Queue: 2 jobs
Job 1
Amino acid sequence: MPLPTDEKLLALSNNLIQQFDTIFGEHPSFRPAHAKGTMLTGTFTPSEEAASLTRAPHVVRESTPVTVRFSNSTGLPLVPDTDPNADPRGMAIRFNLAEHSHTDIVSHSVDGFPVRTGDEFLELLRALASSDLAAPSDPKNPKPIEIFLGGHPAALAFVQTPKPAPSSFGRESYFGITAMRFINADGVVRYGRYRIVPEAGNEHLDAAAVAAKGPNYLFDELKERVAAGPVSFRILVQLANEGDVVDDATIHWPEDRRVVELGTIALTAPVTDDAHEQQRIIFDPIPRVDGIEPSDDPLLELRAAVYLISGRRRRSESAQ
Ligand code: HEM
């Protein structure tokens, strides 16, 4: 995957990484966001209806090996699983098509995003970094983050969306947020957004239940769960109707939109040498595969650059 040549995009990407470092401290062998994670391997099996949506190789084949990374939010490698800032949780999926050939889905556990562009995200992070969150609110002297949220209703809605902690990474739903362009064998194009739902059903904890848990309860539970049997998810795609906005992550599509099933993944084993593999793997929000293209959502190109720059930094740490 090449780095883009657009100077403005590169500068913004570097500024965003720097801003994460400012907020969470520098931990160069870890991700500046979603730092605490773990990986499992398994298999993707497409559904019968998937080929009507896309001619992508993993949908045409009988099955494809996958590698999945679950993560907590924040750039803190030791963030307790019980910390409210550990939500949204992340789920990144790599479909291994052949040696050095793959396509990814990067998703998180809230159906939405606070801003439409990377510039706005940088503004949000800067406002957050310069606000004393512990201080009481003073309407006569609002904090930078309060001013930002006051002028950005989608960001306010995102902040106010309840984000209850799951009982398990395997009992949470994850959302792709940015729309993709799916193209089938007849050339029919449909826009859609991923939704990844657990076969075991969603289960969230109330505050008292979270308080009774340990700092690694999700990671411990996942080890036990996968040792007992496959951890399975359905990968769904919510389809846009004609006229729906497909290039803005802050805009939800109505719930009556058709949902098709792309297939299921069954995770069966932890990745061997988990820490090393996490340091090495760089997920790509752009699919880069025939049959699934990025939409014009500006977050996609930006994130692809951010994750690549950040991932190269992480890899260079391990080489030292
Ligand atoms: C302007 C928008 C965004 C910025 C600047 C941003 C920034 C980052 C950064 C710096 C990382 C670490 C990447 C690495 O070192 O490999 C990361 C990882 C991640 N982000 Fe984002 N992000 C953005 C939007 C999103 C959105 C919309 C989602 C949800 C779909 C998301 C979900 C994730 C997940 C799940 C990971 C962990 C991936 C992994 O396991 O490697 N991010 N993000």
Job 2
Amino acid sequence: MTMQYDNLEDKLSQLVEYTKDSGKIDLSLYTEYDVKRGLRDSTGKGVLTGLTEISDVIGFDIDERTGEKVPTDGRLYFQGYNVADLIKGMEGRRFGFEEITYLLLFGSLPTEPQLNDFNEILSIYRELPDTFVRDVVMKATSKNMMNTLQRCVLTLYSYDEKPDDISIPNVLRQALSLIAKMPLIAVYGYHAYRHYHENQNLIIRNPKPELSMAENILQMLHPDGDYTALEAKVLDVALILHADHGGGNNSTFTTHVVSSSGTDTYSAVAASLSSLKGPRHGGANLKVMEMFENIEENVTNWEDENELRTYLTKILDREAFDGTGLIYGMGHAVYTLSDPRCVILKEYAKKLSAEKHREKEFALYESVERIAGECIAKKRRLLKPVCANVDFYSGFVYAMLGLPKELYTPIFAISRISGWSAHRIEELVNEGKIIRPAYKYVGHHRPYVAIERRTPRKTSHSFSNN
Ligand SMILES: CC(=O)SCCNC(=O)CCNC(=O)[C@H](O)C(C)(C)COP(=O)(O)OP(=O)(O)OC[C@H]1O[C@@H](n2cnc3c(N)ncnc32)[C@H](O)[C@@H]1OP(=O)(O)O
Ligand SMILES: O=C([O-])CC(=O)C(=O)O
């Protein structure tokens, strides 16, 4: 017998009540049992769960006199090198993302011959298996390219002769292969989606071995295969800035957690992609763009700070935009006064907005950055200053480069897979223990009740799970 649709809705809504009721934990228990909610201690600092040499994320300095932590401008180091210095050092050179990937994976900056060899290896691995585009990328196309990436990465497992071998040589081969292939999958997935769902011409352009990752993304993406030097340079800088961020960020921690179980590389990368997609992590770059579209529609005078403040307060009060109460692109788990990546991207946003005559929008971003910080501090219980993060200006920069919104978070992933790979190898090289934190049980043990003696549960909440 087929259930009526209305009936199904009713039945589901009752189950929704049950599951919400059953899953609810009394928040005061976190304090009672000293449980670190979100793995953060009472000062908001992340609980120490691992050691890494890959990158260092600094949001506080220690006052030498008092020994106290003092909020500071953020600094990010890859294998000991300040990212700002790396970007500056590469100014005369054309592209740096490949070099940074080498640095993250192998621990030192490559010499010219080493870099040339590495680029050659990447260009060999860039090739997708025969018919992969036709049989996998073009099938069951998804509106969200992060899901497409996950699906395709998981399917590449089936094309690998040694998918479950987690020896370091094999994992490195798989990592390099995925790093090289990811841009193709993202861009082809985007074209396939546009073709099937938006009736656009299908463009599948091969990558060119002599081009950098940034150039290849642009030439495969643009209908005419053309791009400017500035576009490629800015995209390359964005790729460098997103390449790693310590072991504790949600997607890299996911890499550590799943790698510690001994799972295969494809599953580990798919898991990290799932994490990065979330709007409180890498997916925030897309949310920032949507939020600005919403602000631009609802705030009549962008220069009126009071009107902006009122609207941002509405967002925080869950009365506007997506109802989550979050101002996307603001706040960070570690950084306090500034996120160094945001500082660099903001410079590019300023430069590009002048070139593209979008200064008014840039001014709006700057105002929101300043006013949102004040509003969040007023409305939330903050343990540290709040600043704009890497996702705040990145979407605006991508938009000015003509990149489609669908690819904002995939670009983050195309870059971050370098960091995930370095962390996965670090986890495996050190033969870490399986990551398995403890959970305190706060339910109640109960005697079994035979089915004929059961009565439907009431859902007004008591924390007893009866
Ligand atoms: C690449 C990246 O992942 S960068 C981050 C991208 N994410 C975003 O931009 C989403 C918006 N920002 C946020 O949600 C948060 O700032 C995060 C997830 C980045 C960091 O979260 P936390 O480490 O928990 O931040 P923190 O401890 O400073 O937050 C203190 C309080 O302020 C709130 N808060 C922090 N940032 C924001 C924000 N942008 N909008 C509204 N409230 C915020 C937190 O929810 C928390 O409130 P609570 O105590 O009621 O739960
Ligand atoms: O460190 C974090 O929590 C989030 C972040 O900025 C990143 O992963 O780039």
